[in-house]
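Progress against Task 2.4 (sequence-to-structure conversion) is shown through the following example record, which the project officer requested during the mid-term review.
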Amino acid sequence: MCLLRPEKVVSVCILWLVGLCVLAVTQSSLADEFPAAPEGTFSIVVIPDTQHYKLVSKEGEEPVWENPVFESYVDWTAANLTSQRIVFVSHVGDIVDLNEAPQWQVARDCMDRVHGRVPYGISVGNHDMQANGDSSLFQEFFPQSRYADFDWYGGSYAGVDGDPSVSGNNANSFQLFSAEGLRFVFLHLECNAPDDVLAWADSVLESHADRLAIVTSHMGLGPRDKPKESRDYFDAPKGRMTWTKRHQQRGNSPQQMWDKCFQNHANLLMTCCGDQSRSQALRQESQGVHGNTVHELLSDYGVNGMRVMRFVPRENEIQVRTWNPMTSEFCESTKIVADVEQHQFTLRAQLTTAE
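Structure tokens generated for the chain above:
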């Protein structure tokens, strides 16, 4: 029988505890890694509102802005196009905080990191246009001509009475792409899209009724009624919003956009939105008039992450993950939304298209 002296026992115990700590750290690191997408799956990235600009120039100098949050989201996307099998990127709008050229330049520089490498679309948010719906600066930095050479770019709404400044020149656009045998039409509609824009959206969805449809529009889910007090943004009943921010009397609320357009299309699979940083993450399932299930998803995470939606056609499911490239970890809880099931969840979906 071999007996260890007390000092040897202490040494063995220390080594054992160190080993456990190393193992725990290793397991934690592995748990925080984003596993690569397996064959037969693909991913769509949804970038939330990117209003997080920092003024880095000195007082009296020309304004110089930077946006490390936006940069981290597009950099991670660009670096993981292959490993995550990313086939499309959607931006929910509020691309800028101030609708001024210096911030738009930063935004275009950020999107240039994925431009030409993966199909993408952008919804124009309320911060990206004037009150009357004039989105001329967005159109200057992200015009239709920027996408003319891409076969996945379907086109855009022309605008009102030949004037593209309101609603035209890529302010409302659609994209066409395929992945794992599934064909998609993806619309990006401006905040509070008016009736003429919705009529155009109807025509696009009808023309591509044999494709699965996804729509991103800036406003969607949040406080159902327009908040009267600050706490209403957090505490009031939430769902599809019944109020507007842009296009004045012409603008449609998210509820009106659903009633007039979205619910009427049997191929509509999902809507994505942002806008509500004080709701941050919210989702609901709705039924279209044809009995199709429509998943409505809000993500406005700020610095807490972006959405990566992994489609698994063989299982008829969409694995929605909220990933924070700035910390290299999954977002499981925030101060506003503690429930992990609002950040990491799986949707059931009939991932088929008509022959």
